[in-house]
What we know:
CATH topology of the largest domain: Dihydrodipicolinate Reductase, domain 2
Strand content: 15-25%
Structural class: alpha/beta
Shape: globular
Radius of gyration: 25 Å
CATH architecture of the largest domain: 2-Layer Sandwich
Oligomer: single chain
CATH class of the largest domain: Alpha Beta
Number of domains: 3
CATH superfamily of the largest domain: Dihydrodipicolinate Reductase, domain 2
Largest sheet: 10 strands, mixed
Number of helices: 14
Amino acid sequence: MNLAISIKQNILKARKAPPINLASILFLILTVISIRATAQDKLIKLIVLDPGHGHATYMQGRMYEGLDPVVHVYAPEGQDVETYLKSIHGMNSRSGNPTQWKMVVYTGVDYLERMLAEKKGNAVIISGNNSKKGLYMRRSIEAGIHVLADKPMAVSPNDFEMLKETFKLAEKKNLKLFDPMDLRYDISNILQKELAAIPELFGTLKKGSETDPSLVQENLHHFLKFSGSEAIRRPAWFFDIEQQGHGITDVSTHLVDMSQWAAFPGVILNYKKDIKILSSREWPTELTPSEFKRVTRVDYPNYLNKYIKDSILSVLANGEINYALKNIHAKVTVKWNYREPTGYGDTHYALMRGTKADLELRQGLAENYKATLYVKPAKELKVNEFNSALEVVRAKMQEQYPGFDLIQKGDEWMIKPGKFKGTNAAEVAIGYILNDKMPAWEVPNMIAKYYTTTGAIK
């Protein structure tokens, strides 16, 4: 209830009552205090712990209903927290739709213990050095704080075992522990998932093989990126696999999640029965000293010496995992180049092979580097049967996405998404906490996801 309306209603009640006495005044005051306390109890009060990655700001891109504007930050002194605070200052001072975050910052060597002792919030964002993440998550859950952890939540088999125990503790304490997945809220990924669920068009998933998988996810990333004309700084530890993790345990988290989410929506996966790692491989991206310094603003630190030969740094950022997901052959691939090319940035590719059609998401030059979904009918499918399916799909999807269409391009059809009112990872995270509810599949499927990525390391 709106606070002003509630006060007004109680004042009117008081006017109709006998002359105001001390009891009436006390009743009014207590009502106001109760309403204000209830409103405050329902707010998410954010803590940001040791921010070291740009994703630490994902809940602060705009002001969200349900989020307290006061955010408490606990971190060691250094460039990582300074970069994070600079980003928040930029959003608070921008000319268009500025945010109004009020940052309360503590920096010191005892930042973690200070955060746990003061407990200034009820939800903590953990986005930084992955070698510390397991401990941060565990201690936060023990302290009774919801955890919003940037991927990856685990980068090694040992991390995976610790993560499972932390999930058990979170369930026992009725706390939310999860890694918001932003690719789920892109319209091209949503439509691929929805079209795969229409049997008249897609049929069913083919089983595929290790050399011809039916679920394919690929990402291309770049170390050197730009925000306007300014190069975005990455911390030096980002290039140490002992701190950041191997490539196949980092960005692959998103790709494994996409395959699970799109191919088996709403299905609770059992990692012990439903996933089988078949093979994995990784290879380096090489950086020169000048390239490294441009990205990090520093020279090589000593802990990277083991990856350096003849002044060239080899970063095991690239990787591929071949696995079976509920007996469907799947593959995820992550690649990293040094510099973001002019005109486009990171790209995403996704393929789902069905018995009646393939659903292929491409983001190349032909698509002007904009994620675009295509439908390609199976060769053995009769033309009349496919055309009939297209009409069914067009009518069904236009109800949900006005303007949706399928446009023929040679032997395939390009998807025009139509009008789309979406959400994002921040809004979903807020809903999970405020509504005290997550889908039944979310936690077991997170466990399945990290079993896949960390299992690839073995």
